[in-house]
Amino acid sequence: MELDNNNHSVFSMYYHLVLVIKYRRKVIDDNISNRLKEIFAYIAPNYNIALQEWNPDKDHVRILFKAQPNSELSKFINAYKSASSRLIKKEYSIIRKSLWKEYFWARSFCLLTTGGAPMEVVGRYIESQGEKI
């Protein structure tokens, strides 16, 4: 296993995040998925987070990312959900027909540590989930 380090610690912190579209609306297509991924990759470094895997479905995304001990995960997730919701609704007006209120993402999220499973196994699992869009 390869470990990361900073000035004061050695670590391996991988997380599996699932974000669901409000009302489970099936609004994610390739263009929207690519834009959501771009926004994630843009915001993540501000929180010492690095994207590892991205797998969209029509009504949710599964993300594998790497963090550091000083990463503020809940702040990052809230910042990402807020920014991506605002930008996606602004850039893809068709979304407003399916999601008539201000929210793009469901209020809750699922965040799992990857435990002792090898990253290749977790990555393959995330890749294999759901229907491809």
- CATH class term: Alpha Beta
Give the strand order of the largest sheet, numbering strands 1, 2, ... along the chain: 4-5-3-6
- Helix share bin: 25-40%
CATH architecture: 2-Layer Sandwich
Taking the sheet with the most strands, its summary is: 4 strands, antiparallel
SS strand fraction: 15-25%
In short:
With 133 residues, the chain is an alpha+beta fold. It has four helices and six strands; from the N terminus they run βββαββααβα.
How would you explain this protein's 3D organization?
By secondary structure, this protein is α+β, with helices and mostly antiparallel strands. A 4-stranded antiparallel sheet has the order 4-5-3-6, with helices on both faces. The protein has a two-stranded antiparallel ribbon with strand order 1-2. Strand 4 (50-56) and strand 5 (60-67) form a beta hairpin. 35% of the residues lie in helices and 23% in strands. The protein is built from 4 helices and 6 strands; from the N terminus they run E-E-E-H-E-E-H-H-E-H. It has one domain (4-128): Alpha-Beta Plaits (2-Layer Sandwich), CATH 3.30.70.1290. It starts with a strand and ends in a 5-residue tail after the last helix. It is globular and about 50 Å long. The mean pLDDT is 92. This is IS200/IS605 family transposase. It comes from Paenibacillus piri. One of its GO terms (molecular function) is DNA binding.
Q: Could you name the key traits of this structure?
A:
single chain; 133 residues; alpha+beta; Alpha-Beta Plaits; two-stranded antiparallel sheet; 4 helices; Transposase_17_sf; Transposase_17; transposase activity; DNA binding
